[in-house]
Amino acid sequence: MAHIKLLIWACCLALSTSFAYGLGVNWGTQAAQTLPPSTIVQMLKDNKIDKVKLFDSDHWTVKYFAGTGIEVMLGIPNNQLAKFADDYDFAKEWVKNNVSTHLYNGGVDIKFVAVGNEPFLKSYNGSFLKSTFPALQNVQKALNSAGLGDKIKATIPQNADVYESGNSGPSQGDFRSDIRDLMQKNCSFFKDNNTPFLVNIYPFLSLHENKHFPIEFAFFDGQTKAVRDNGISYTNMFHANLDTLVVSLKKASCSGVKIIVGEIGWPTDGDLYGNVTLAKRFYSGFFKKMATKKGTPLYPGFIEYYLFSLTDESEKSILPGSFERHWGHF
């Protein structure tokens, strides 16, 4: 299995030396045994991966990225959002201890702070709706107060379920009706602070959750009949999904907000569709698409991506499915 997984990276790296520009990876640590940060850093450097997205801000881990040239996105877990929302002084102290302390000459290149992780996911039943936006405001305010606001931005990694278009296509996209006002506030904040919208898009999950989803539409190899929407042809779910977000942002008067794909990947085990064969097919098409440095029909420019995930995580919850423990590339 490990040998086959490495072939996925071979597909990526064989394309070109410059291809990895803009390619990041998520490093989750919910595993019985985790690799030392020094090993992780060397793996990223060896494979020319220049960005890493973390799910916390553990000082012992973050310090290993000093002087590496790897951009780091720190994370704030959902269970801490209420503290950040209720106490600005707490946010200031967190920035001092988890951000500023790493920014000496030759230190860590921190680019973003991810406030929560998919906090508006439907399955959370509104648990973080009241705390996320105030937490976002306080973190960015604390970064500004520390003189870091121009360089480091606070954003929110969002699941693609925050917007929808029904069966009508991307041109009818809009943010979910139950959180539309909240998303308007979030997006206006992003626009005002020159902050990107971070979205997680998983064609695999569309296939896993909907037995009627056309399997060919999950891949990038053009083996499906094009779907026409408002004069645009779509041959894969990713383009259609991201363009639904583009339309949703436009309706929220936030067309200028940059989009970054915070998570994208395919599991190698644990599901009928989660296997090495389909993972290799997905990544082969995805890496070729990324190498073109072209976006989508409605967002044609360069897009940054963070692959999910660097390694398997043996202690992740399997409530969604056993595949949750098999997203690792290595």
From TrEMBL:
Task: State the taxonomy lineage.
Answer: Eukaryota, Viridiplantae, Streptophyta, Embryophyta, Tracheophyta
Residues making up the signal peptide according to the UniProt record: 1-22
PANTHER family assigned to the protein according to its UniProt record, in alphabetical order: GLUCAN ENDO-1,3-BETA-GLUCOSIDASE BG1-RELATED-RELATED
Q: Name one Pfam family in it.
A: Glyco_hydro_17
Keywords, in A-Z order? Glycosidase, Hydrolase, Plant defense, Signal
List the Gene Ontology MF annotations in alphabetical order. hydrolase activity, hydrolyzing O-glycosyl compounds
What processes does the entry annotate via GO biological process terms?
carbohydrate metabolic process; defense response
Organism equals Solanum commersonii
Q: Does the keyword Transmembrane apply?
A: no
Q: Which family does it belong to?
A: Belongs to the glycosyl hydrolase 17 family.
- Tell me what this protein is called: Glucan endo-1,3-beta-D-glucosidase
- Lineage, top-rank taxon, reads Eukaryota
